[in-house]
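User: quick one, fold this
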Amino acid sequence: MIGQTISHYKILEKLGGGGMGVVYKAEDTKLKRTVALKFLPPEWTRDEDAKARFMHEAQAASALDHNNICTIYEVDETEDGQLFIAMALYEGATLKYEIEQSPLKLEEAIELSIQIAQGLAKAHEKGIVHRDIKPANVFITNDGVAKILDFGLAKLASRTMLTKEGTTLGTVAYMSPEQAQSVQVDHRTDIWALGALLYEMISGRQPFEGDYEQAVMYSIMNEEPEPMTGLRTGVPMELERIVNKCLEKDASDRYQRADELIVDLTKLKKTVESFPSHSDNMPVSATKRENFRVFLVSAILVVSTVLLVFLAANYSGIFKSESSVPRLIFPKQVTSSIGVEDYPTWSPDGGRIAYESNQSGNWDIYAVQIGGGQQLNLTIDHSGDDRFPTWSPDGNQIAFWSSREGDGYFVISALGGPVRKVVSNDYASRFQWSKEGTEFATVVRDSSNSFLIEISSFAEGVSRRFSIPKEVGGIVDLNWSSTQKYFAFVGATNETPDVAQLWMLRLEDGICYPVTEGQFDDRSPSWSPDDKSLYFVSNRGGSKDVWMQRITDAGEPTGSARSVTTGIGIRQALFSYDGSKLAYSKGRLVANLWRIPILGRRVATWEDAQQLTFDQAFVEYVDISPDGKTLAFNSDRGGNLDLWLLPVEGGETQQITTDFSPDWAPHWSPDGKTVAFYSARSGNRDIWKIPASGGRALQL
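Assistant:
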């Protein structure tokens, strides 16, 4: 057809084709403009009634004047009766092409979804349903504007039954359940498809998959998509909620109008924009040496979400068993805000959770019903940090550390209200209540900067002090045992060390002894009701998971720790008072290497930067070889904290340590042949060295 003139359109070149027809680039000889002509399959309109209905619907679609809907100039037919549509011709690519390159940036996916929803809202307002929203039917212009294509064609196609016998028309992966069942559909089928589209933009895969069409249709009608948060790090739980609502099986449970979806997406967009990504133009300080480049580790703390996990019903007596490991089932998400949510604590009745979150811009204490409902910011009155909540045994109060009034521990009603200072303390850690609620325990530092565990009476003040050996270092995650006989805590210098060791203190004689080896990141101890098991979070299996250590009647660890969960990525975990439920926060630090020029003429921005690593992993320390050609860095990109090498220009990485214990802080020798580093492989933090080419490490 190239070179032919159809009506007043001269065909210039073929742009593409598919099941919906063939598209050509053409010149409108009357108006002297370039257009796109889509010629529909002749089989579609052999039925004169079908042709008449399509002409009517196409005319209605052409009346849709909206920036996010492809403009239709004309619907006509050739002399031999073949229908064609004259449309605006845009520069850009289909959303299908964009997704095939890589999943979209979070902000971009949300913005495009808002635009698509706005176009759908306009069509639905006029009583027009698209029925075939999919990546190939959304065009993204070079200016970033989404244009919905092919309004009216899906309905025409479905009337002609132009697919394999026994199947339903449309692109199966984006069908709503009602389409898959060939029942009456309305505008809410487009909302379903947009949810599937947004899922794919974020995760890079379709929410419902299968080896053949019937398998995909079964999945659509009977299965739930894999959570996006498990497929891509940093996905806000609010976005997960929005997509899940779009993908509700029952249309009455979805967003009922596209406008409702737009409201939620717009709110989310504003929140996400308040947490700028690496692509933002964040200024980077620079010196006047233009030919030198700086290597930065750019780190973000990924959204950490408090979750709830119930123990299986047939494990109700698990803590009385000498050998069983609890099986955690029926996970339920409790919170979904953007920001870090951590350190969950249970109300005694097991009905509520309090936790800390920085979603407001500073650390606050929140409380929420596990059955659902609005989260309550209990410390909204304070612009500083309020952290590490613990619920009182009677359920009426929550204690926490705060930077207010010169630092210290405070209590507040579980329903909110004024706070009351309990004791001054500049060392932030978890406040621990006694079983009766008449005493409390905190970590303090004395004048020599030594750490102590201090038990105080609410009525009479300090009653007992327990010294901690110097080798323990600092104390975090203090936890008083259920029987009040022991303290478990983590010996570490900060909240996020590479290696952290679990310790116990026996109150009867004040003896302090290690529970774990000191070769992993062990933290967040939590006791069983009978003190026979100590649960903790560890990376000893690769990912951060819950482990169980049996404890003898004498309070000594016995046997090896056993894994309770696998592959979750837990930050903090705490069992409920009765031991039947576990609350945990999920999230991790993610950091990558970037290369940034030092410019003499201006301050550099992230637009000048080159990203060198692209892992959902944590890069911590980096050092440049003496010849300036190779970077040595430590990362948990392989599941464990090891040393890696990378050319300064980027490219393939080379792993040089593989020990199961963490290795970190690499430093090149002056001749560039050896890398020195810290390691805990001996049980202590020692200095080791290894040839840069790999080989056997030597302890120095």
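User: anything notable?
Assistant: The chain has nine helices and 44 strands.
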